[in-house]
Amino acid sequence: MHRVLVSGYYGFGNAxxxxxxxxxxxxxxxxxxxxxxxxxxxxxxxxxxxxxxxAVPRTSPLAVxxxxxxxxxxxxxxxxxxxxxxxxxxxxxxxxxxxxxxKLNKKVMFYANGVGPVNxxxxxxxxxxxGNMVDLITxxxxxxxxxxxxxxxxxxxxxxxADPAFVLDPIPDEMGFEILKSxxxxxxxxxxxxxxxxxxxHLNKSREIIAEACDYFVKNKNADIFFxxxxxxxxxxxxxxxxxxxxxxxxxLKAPLNPKELLWLxxxxxxxxxxxxxxxxxxxxxxxxxxxxIYDPKVKQFLLRVNQPSAGEPEELELVKLCSMIExxxxxxxxxxxxxxxxxxELKDLAMQNAKMAIQLLEEEK
Length: 366
Known about the structure:
By secondary structure, the protein is α/β, with parallel strands linked by helices.
């Protein structure tokens, strides 16, 4: 039995990060069932049960070091762990795990990481020092590779793959409609369905524009507006701020869904206007046209990769431009769907490469 420890932003109720963990476990187990997974989590119970793995508290030094010591491979797992825009604590924390693992002579992989921006000098030096210690690096986009190289990470090979979530499949329709029914949400087949994914991020000026755009589509396009919070309660609260500004009605998820449930619901939309990276990834996976709002370079990188438009940064948002972009996406949705589904297969294959390389590293003799 091989033992794999996964370190990441788990147990915080963020659907994108939970999708990454789910995908790492599923894709590696597809290749080798003989793996015992443990994750470092802010909420071990909520992590252990849905993923069918072990979990230990990420803030307990003893538990973390014990989990590292018992592992054959330590994965620094997916997502934007190596950046200091949303938090100054991320880089020191995640690199400390890696550093301890290497000092304990463990194999270590950066698994489909998103890297950057790294602004603080101390974090640049840490990333260079520890990055050159690891055995294997995969990143989810070209910009992340360039960022690591610019920081001086030259030891391990850096492979550009794709976000792990691309290997996931949605739940069946029957299950999905039951979940919506339990939340009092209705999908009207005769109406245009616009999904909105927001997160807290200096949106004060943008909220009114987003609310006006939603009202425009309800009034002029007979649209239903669906707010899709990816992290509770933060995204829910932000969405409600916009809903309060709307003159028309909108629907919103009232309780969290797991990644496969959100993937299914994303697929029922006709277009998704989103900030959250994984709301856009889920939409692309289901062939749904996208319009992005860029709060972080990772969103821009993904939109470029799948050839979908951006409405700019939150402070640049313009009502007429936003409405015209959503209208264009709706008018071309059949063509866009075909293009996205072709791209999805390419990115799914690349996402599986992460797992294949991880298994190869795990099974290599030291």
